[in-house]
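$ fold --in a.seq
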Amino acid sequence: MVLAAVAAAAVGAGCAKKKVAAVTPPAPPQQVVERPAAPPAAPPKQVAAAPEQARPAQRSNMPDAATRKRIDELLARIEDAYFDYDKATLRSDAIEALRKDSTELRDILKDYPDYKLTIEGHCDERGSAEYNMALGQARAEAAKSYLVQVGIPSQQMGVISYGKQKPACQDETEACWQKNRRIHIVAGATSE
């Protein structure tokens, strides 16, 4: 029986469950995700110096040749303003003479602050030179005052009196004297 026990033990040992070493299943193969190759790094952009923005041409305070020509045309059309004997008050016909083209003249001059006009005051030959200089000045000032009311800047107009020094007519008649009692506007400045 001993033998039988040994044999049974041997058989039992042989029938005993075999312990199998636990084998871990192999890890699933790693999937390699291919990323597209990054494009080669662009060379750093060189920031070009911003071109200087073209500055608008600075507008001149003096009119160009074409504008000066237009001003001269307007001044030629503006009739002399005439005055009554021994008066410096603008008559209605004098106001009309000044008004005709003064609006366009004003619109041009506002863009050219350095451009000046001169208002000349004139008298007929009667009276002393000193008296006529003062009267011519008063006539020029009256015309300037009107033109300022129309909108022409005061600083763009100078006044000068010629008294009886520059007559438009030489006859000794009332019709001729009337032509000499006037203001005349010219381009260019004189001191007040």
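$ fold --in b.seq
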Amino acid sequence: MVYDDHQIPLTRRQRQLVDFISEFIQQNGYSPTLEEIGQGMGLSSLATIHKHLKNLEAKGLIRRRWNHSRSIQLVDPETAALMDQVIDLPLMGRVAAGMPIEAVLDDEMVSVPATMVPSGKKTYVLQVEGESMIEEHIADGDLVIVESRETAHPGETVVALVEGESVTVKKYYPESGGMIRLQPANADLAPIMVRADQVRVQGVVIGLMRRYI
């Protein structure tokens, strides 16, 4: 994997680390642990390795999955360069991930990484309330990026207008008898069953952002 220093500035050690990770993945089919990076690069301090990885993550060159020993995923240079680009999308309000509530219109705009927004598609942001989608890692207070469209495939997470009155975020499943099942991703909650003519898909969730402040 080749990185242009004019596109993404890298220190010599960062370049070596990216090359090592790339070669390791090509040879083994999975990413190295911190210990394997240390052994392969002659680095004895795991804290130093962790610092280098954080810097690469900040530059958008890698992603890491929480709570995985082999968590490193390389991001190609063109995608990494786009990481610093943002698009402002309208925050259209709040939507329930529990029982349906009305969406509330706001004037706020949210800056979203350009890589998360499909080109040429009408897209907006909603803030989730409730925890019925928690098993899909959509938590109370999260911001979901929504592609505005009126159709969905079975199993997609949708923003649905129910009975012309309230809006909810659920997984979408057509059922027999002209019914639609709006399925929560929470084992403690029951699905919403409603006639197909009483449900209107308003959009499909294509991304998720979380605020920590």
